[in-house]
Design goal:
By secondary structure, the protein is mainly beta. 6% of the residues lie in helices and 43% in strands. The strands form 15 sheets. A five-stranded mixed beta sheet has the order 23-29-28-25-26, with no helix packed on it. A hairpin with a 5-residue loop joins strand 51 and strand 52. The radius of gyration is 40 Å and the shape is flat. The N and C termini lie far apart (127 Å).
Length: 815
């Protein structure tokens, strides 16, 4: 027995070891076939304009799927983001998911990405437990410190340049300015709005340099990731006239803009023949380029035929001087490059409706986009209201309206666009859809194009392909719809017409008659809000068109479109006097046109002209019978003793108190002026704290001075926007300030033997209006009986030596 047991021990030992090795192998095999994010290749910091790539350690798809959109059964896609991001997913590689954001990522922000638990490798291996990864865009950075300009009193304006727009309140309390010996210098903000370049005014005295220190905590407008460490930068202060920087900015569709910044406000007249720009080809200068140089404040704008992607050399020669007479000490030569145009796409035509049997060719402008992705989507008729409520087509992205219709095609088209040129291609929709095996276009369709490399650069255009012409007229009690054929101009009978409300409710339904018309009664009074007609859809067979009623609305801004509604019953009169004003003792000739409902001439019965005094009491009641044309006349004499003022005339039908028309006349006793008053003040703009002398001169109209007469004056300082002729598109000042008009004490003066007198006014300093001010003077010269003759005068006032704008400081010029 023991012998048998001794034989079983090695067997049992071998079995246990075999099972253990099998278990370990199973675990290793299991681990080896679990899907993980490849963190070694994953980028935790990304640029705002880059796509997001999520590499995995196992293949996800075959190589023929690379570049294609990912169809995912769940909302949110194979990876969800917190905070949420809009965009689309494509297979960036056989083992990589690429997310293309709908718009550039916010700067200074962080996100968490979580792969879906349903994600599988190509061989079916499941995703391992939590594979969340974090990523972020770069935090706010302080990129430069520049000497922007020098003020006449020796203070300097420094420019702090950041990688993102910064609000002025972010630097308040987090900035120190010191001299080379460590002395703290007083400063105040100049920029009053969020901007990547914040300017501060520093009382630098005669220092040659200053040091600026920024403390942690400053955040940009894009996101919360701000400056984390204390940093100091120094800048040399040039007390003469010096060039600080030259920069060239580009856009997609516009011309390059080249600007040079100096340390002083410039004399514009000194620019003539002192600026030369030459193109550089491999470092060799070519013939000078014709340019136009314009100076405004401490900036010089250079305008010329600058080419994108080219280098230039600019020369500023002595003779260029500042506004206060400082000359450029020596010739200054700088080089600059004009960058490439930003890639862009646009539809130059706004036409949305296309004839069904005509050419379906859409022009498209591109810049630095070698190929475009074209998507065609047919909108379902029952989704047209949702489609219109979504907004203008060029602002839509595919995710916003893809669930409103049926995709017809998605293809890539090469543009053959030359570099840095605005190139126009032609999209032949018939040919493209035929090649893609898609059905012919009809009805409402959205054609969208996008740049595969600039994922947020896209445009969408509404295209309605139809043979149906639609005319809609609305009246208070009915809506008239007329459907015709665009190819034959004949009415379309039996066309199905549906009128929808903004909430996608069917307000009316009907079919056109042989004449192509269909009429609908207006909604009942008191209908629920939102049920008014919003959109009309007409269909005939496979053909369909629609018309948003709001597109035909005309703006009544600036026009007097008030008035009375159409007359349903009773009478209406239009009354008028021969003239609007009369003296006491004169006779006023009154007339009225009387009409019945529908505009028919009213006659055969009298009407009453009821005249009331200025105090509302009855003055006269005159009866008149309209002529066959419906015109009635009446005369009313105003006695010489009658009170002056406005007399009202109401037209009524005898036996009824409701007026059917009204007019008014004014009775005044005219007395000519017997004296004249003139005011004079210093010309040009006035400064803070100025002493202003306002001279008054009174005279009798027959020539002699108004000796001993009293003149009373009222002076008011009120807000008045400051504008500069060289910068018409700029706004100056701080719109967040609250300022109330200030009344200045002026009192009254008595004119001397020459009929003259002076009001002495001290303008207050320290006022903080939104922008500039205006001083308004209203003076009255009193006659012996107390009757007054008035004169007015105004002058612009600058409350401070400088005005702030979001880009630069402009000195308020005195004239």
């Amino acid at each position: 027995m023991r012998k048998h047991l001794d034989a079983l021990v090695p067997i049992a030992f071998l079995l246990v070891n075999t099972l253990g090795l099998a278990f370990i192998a199973t675990q290793l095999q299991k681990d080896r076939h679990t899907l993980h994010v490849d963190r070694a290749r994953f980028r935790e910091q990304v640029a705002a304009a880059d796509p997001l790539r999520f590499p995995f350690d196992l293949p996800l798809v075959s190589r023929d799927q690379v570049g294609r959109d990912i169809a995912w059964p769940e909302a949110g896609g194979p990876i969800t983001f917190e905070p949420a991001l809009e965009g689309r997913f494509v297979w960036g590689d056989f083992d990589t998911i690429e997310f293309r954001p709908a718009r550039p990522l916010r700067s200074g922000s962080a996100w968490t990405a979580r792969p879906s638990p349903r994600l599988r490798a190509w061989d079916g291996s499941p995703l391992d437990r939590d594979q969340s990864v974090a990523f972020a865009t770069p935090p706010l950075a302080w990129t430069a410190l520049l000497h922007d300009s020098t003020t006449p009193d020796g203070s300097v304006v420094l420019a702090l340049r950041f990688s993102d727009a910064v609000s002025p309140d972010q630097i308040t309390g987090r900035i120190e300015v010191k001299s080379p010996r460590g002395e703290h210098l007083a400063w105040q903000p100049v920029t009053h709005a969020a901007d990547p370049e914040q300017r501060i005014l520093v009382e630098a005295g005669d220092l040659d340099s200053v040091e600026v220190t920024l403390k942690p905590g400053i955040r940009g407008e894009g996101g919360p990731r701000g400056i984390a460490e204390t940093r100091s930068l120094s800048v040399t202060l040039d007390r003469g006239l010096a060039l600080t920087e030259i920069q060239a900015s580009t856009s997609t569709w516009g011309h390059p803009e080249v600007s040079a910044r100096f340390t002083r406000d410039l004399d514009p007249e000194s620019l003539a023949d002192r600026v030369t720009v030459e193109p550089l080809l491999r470092g060799v200068a070519g013939a000078p380029l014709p340019v136009r140089a314009r100076a405004s404040s401490n900036w010089v704008s250079l305008q010329g035929d600058f080419e994108h992607g080219a280098a230039y050399r600019v020369t500023f020669r002595p003779g260029l001087r500042s506004a206060n007479g400082l000359n450029l000490a020596a010739t200054v030569v700088r080089t600059f490059e004009v960058g490439d145009r930003e890639p862009g796409i646009r539809f130059p035509s706004t036409n949305a409706y296309h004839f069904r049997d005509g050419a379906l060719v859409l022009p498209i402008d591109t810049v630095n986009v070698p190929e475009v992705e074209v998507s065609v989507l047919r909108i379902y008729p029952n989704n047209l209201v949702h489609f219109r409520n979504a907004g203008k087509p060029h602002r839509w992205n595919s995710d916003e309206y893809s669930n409103l219709g049926r995709p017809l095609a998605h293809l890539t088209v090469r543009t053959r666009s030359p570099r840095n040129a605005v190139h126009q291609s032609r999209l032949d929709l018939r040919e493209l859809l035929r090649d893609a095996g898609a059905p012919a276009l009809t009805g409402a369709t959205v054609v969208s194009v996008r740049d595969p490399q600039s994922y947020w650069s896209r445009e969408a255009k509404l295209v309605v392909v139809t043979d149906l012409g639609l005319l809609v007229k609305r009246a208070p009690k009915e809506t008239l719809v007329w459907v015709t054929s665009l190819s034959t101009t004949q009415p379309v009978a039996d066309a199905e017409v549906t009128v929808y409300s903004r909430t996608n409710q069917r307000v009316f339904e009907g079919k056109t008659g042989p004449d192509g018309f269909v009429r609908f009664a207006a909604p009942a009074t008191g209908a629920a809000a939102g049920e008014d007609p919003f959109l009309v859809v007409a269909a005939s067979g496979e053909d369909l068109t629609y018309l948003p009623l709001s597109d035909g609305d005309l703006s009544d801004t600036g026009f007097d479109v008030g008035g009375q509604a159409n007359l349903d019953q009773g009478y209406r009169a239009f009354a008028w006097p021969e003239r609007g004003i009369y003296r006491p003792g004169e006779t006023a000739h009154l007339s009225a046109v009387v009409r019945e409902a529908g505009g028919a001439t009213a006659g055969g019965f009298p009407v009453l002209f009821r005249v009331r005094k200025p105090d509302g009491s009855a003055f006269a009641e005159l009866a008149a019978t309209p002529s066959p044309q419906g015109i009635a006349h009446a005369d009313v004499t105003v006695p010489e003793y009658a009170p002056t003022g406005v007399y009202t005339i109401a037209i009524v039908v005898p036996g009824h108190d409701d007026e059917i028309g009204a007019t008014r006349i004014q009775v005044e006793d005219f007395l000519p002026n017997r004296m004249a008053l003139t005011l004079e003040a210093p010309a040009g703009r006035l400064g803070p704290g100025a002493k202003v002398a306002i001279a008054a001169r009174g005279a009798h109209l027959f020539g002699s001075p108004a000796v001993g007469r009293t003149v009373k004056a009222a002076l008011v300082l009120a807000d008045a926007p400051f504008a500069h002729a060289d910068w018409p598109d700029f706004q100056f000042g701080d719109p967040t300030r609250e300022f109330s008009s200030v009344r200045l004490p002026a009192g009254e003066i008595v004119l001397d033997d020459a009929g003259k007198g002076v009001f002495a006014v001290d303008l207050p300093a320290g006022l903080k209006p939104q922008s500039g001010l205006t001083l308004s003077v209203n003076a009255t010269l009193l006659e012996v009986g107390g009757r007054g003759v008035t004169a007015w005068l105004s002058r612009p006032v600058d409350p401070a030596p400088y005005y702030a704008t979001n880009r630069q400081i402009l000195r308020a010029k005195r004239r």
